[in-house]
Amino acid sequence: MPKHVWITRGLAAIAVGGLLAATACKPGDGTSGAGGELDGVTLTVAAKWTGTEQKNFEEVLDGFEKDTGATVNYEATGEDTGAYLGPKIEAGEPPDIAALPQPGLVREYAEQGALKPLQGEAATALESNYTGYWRDLGSVDGEAYGVLLKAAHKSIIWYRPSAFDAAGVTPPETWDELVDTTSRTLSNAGITPFAMCGASGWTLTDWFENAYLSHAGPENYDKLADHEIPWTDDTVVQTLTTLSEVWGEDDMMKGGQKGAVQTAFPTCVSEVYGQEEAAMVFEGDFVGSSAAEAGATVGEDAVAFPFPAVGDKAPVVVGGDIAVAMTERKGVQELMAYLASPQAQSTWAGLGGYLSANSGVQPDAYADEFTQDLSATIVEAGENVRYDLSDQVPSRFGATEGRGMWSILQDLLRGSTDPEGAAKALEKAASEA
After folding, report:
1. 118-144 b/e (C-beta count within 10 Å ≥ 16 → b)
2. Cys-Cys link to 41, which of 66, 70, 222, 398 (CB 3.0-4.6 A)?
3. What is d(CA 25, CA 41) in angstroms, rounded to the nearest whole number?
4. Has residue 67 got a pLDDT over 70?
5. Which residues fall within 8 angstroms of residue 10, CB to CB, at 6 or more apart?
6. Which domain of life is it from (predicted)?
7. Which fold has domain 11-153+318-387?
């Protein structure tokens, strides 16, 4: 195995048993097809994907069309899925299926009566192919509506092996090692440790979520997401203080605090790969495509290690898109069953740029060992995995530029507030939302 690879710490071995299970074709797994029973049926699926993502998803849909005889049309929603779907729902003309980027939207639309519960083979496919947390993610008040169709792994730190070799450091396993050993040694060797993506506020919420999940644990993470504990809680203040060990030090990041908050994603990625002005950049598996655009080869000179443990366990934070049915037209539940199947998701896995939380997708469905190991951490994380917190809270608090979590964490990064002040501002914004 090469010197610099994805550090699994045993996860790949653990994954073998879980990922090889439940892969045989059986009733309800969405792999049997309808044998042309949907000839003449036309369905519409709406999602935010464009470019290569759209092309690959349309190839997945081709499999359903060939199996069933149905025609499936794709509609691109743009980045603001809610803004796209809102008028269509109000006009009574929603797409048959939509991929929602936030669990909060699943609840919002379910409470409006805009979603249709999973039934028949679709419900069986969800039950057969997903573990409890992933099933619950698309459920509202015990009713299953959605399937996590595409996952994003947000608990990795990407690095440049040549920079680590030059400083004589290795990937850390704990936060203290990251700060006191890896980063300090890099800095002392004249290599800037981090490129920060602070102008893109969502990247800062991902920093917080990883540190908080590891420090405070899954139970407190859930309580904070539901605002059952205040943002002024000691666990929040302590997490913000922990982040300040990196965020509060100019020599930790390219351009110091002022430059860090002015650098957007994916410019920060090019500062590590291509420009080679920093050694590390934190963000999800999707950094790989930006690194490749900067001239790096993923798995060789663009590699990653798990977000280090702040507390007892390393965090696994996941984002993604949840497919939901919005009409009761013929073929909709069959398509939902297909999208929830190992067959459909293995097809997408083989095309690249994709991660699945489906337990039936085998490791060899992915083209490389790096992606196989990332997928294993999602499937096998069990009770320690959690969905992106900022996507679970009201969007005006967790996902709006210039306000809420984004702007408050940017203030902490630029040094215009301290951890206690940031916690108070977060609680005020959360209460108002």
Report:
1. beebbbbbbebbbbebbbebbbbeeeb
2. 70
3. 25
4. yes
5. none
6. Bacteria
7. D-Maltodextrin-Binding Protein; domain 2 (3.40.190)
